[in-house]
Specification:
Strand content: under 5%
Mean pLDDT: 81
Number of strands: 2
Order of helices and strands: HHHHHEHHHHHHE
Helix content: over 70%
Oligomer: single chain
Length: about 300
């Protein structure tokens, strides 16, 4: 998952030189949603076969409640439509390193939001870690930034995607406790893909289909299958099997992979300030992990 998501930044950034971001991403979401839909049907069909053993990662027999349905819709709109609008728009307008480092602070946001909801208590190390991560983001983004600048607007969009992803991660914890990661991810992605594609229709209509190089189509399908299907499935399989805390630790390595690939492939320089900012972001995330204490309240409350 770390390698896939880290390399995906440079892959889609390179594709944006040949095709506008939102048409590219709309097609990518359609491909991924179609694959998820087929996989969900296949898992259900296999589960109905007498004596067939199906992993809880791909299928669970739990029925959908009314609350589940409304939560799936809300998470699809926020975690896929909203997130993808901000993420893709942000990556198109800023550097891969900036985008990856900002998203690298997501565990801090998730932890603080969980604490605000009463799911865990914040200790002193947590507050120190949050402050260090914020200072790291400032070194990467805020230092010398100007409103209206070519990169700052993209950085703000990526920050918006962090808020969407944190909401999605926390909100989906109830669903993945009862339903398979395959079903939750595929269903919410399909729900979010509908409004996203509708918003991208004008740009899709203006697209010069003949002018798109063949390698872009290959990259689009590869990104859909790997970053959206395989990567998301690994993430929520991890949440289901080893819990969100241990899973999120691995995501902290994504910015390092993204920066390395961007430097080697796209030639993005890694300045001293950016390296210090990266260390601060990841160090702050590490401290927040040490400073987290479970709440006395049951998770479902």
């Amino acid at each position: 998952m770390v390698v896939i998501w880290g390399a995906n930044y440079s892959l889609i950034k390179r594709c944006f030189d040949e095709i506008p971001p939102h048409p590219f991403n709309a097609l990518r979401l359609v491909v991924a949603s179609t694959v998820f839909f087929a996989a969900i049907r296949l898992a259900r069909r296999r589960a109905r076969v007498a004596g067939a053993r199906v992993s809880a990662v791909v299928h669970t027999p739990e029925p959908l409640t009314r609350r589940d349905r409304w939560l799936l819709v809300a998470l699809g709109l926020v975690g896929h439509c909203g997130y993808q609008l901000c993420f893709v728009g942000g990556v198109a307008e800023t550097s891969v390193s900036n985008a990856a480092l900002i998203i690298g602070a997501t565990p801090v946001v998730v932890a603080m939001a969980s604490a605000a909801l009463g799911r865990e208590r914040i200790g002193r190390l947590h507050w120190i870690g949050a402050a260090i991560s914020a200072s790291g983001i400032y070194l990467v983004v805020g230092r010398g930034a100007a409103f209206g600048g070519p990169s700052f607007h993209g950085d703000l969009l990526v920050m918006g995607s962090v808020a969407c992803w944190a909401t999605y991660t926390i909100g989906s914890s109830h669903l993945v406790a009862r339903h398979s990661p395959l079903f939750v991810t595929g269903t919410t992605m399909a729900i979010g893909t509908v409004p996203y594609t509708l918003l991208a229709l004008p740009a899709l209509a203006r697209l010069d289909w003949r002018g798109i190089p063949p390698w872009v189509w290959f990259a689009l399908v590869a990104s859909a299958l790997l970053a959206l299907c395989v990567g998301y499935l690994i993430w929520y399989a991890g949440v289901q099997r080893i819990g969100p805390a241990r899973t999120s630790v691995y995501s902290n390595l994504v910015p390092i992979v993204a920066m390395t690939v961007a430097a080697a492939w796209l030639g993005e320089p890694i300045s001293g300030a950016k390296a210090i900012g990266a260390a601060a972001v990841l160090g702050g995330v590490f401290l927040t992990r040490l400073g987290r204490r479970p709440s006395d309240a049951p998770p479902e409350e």
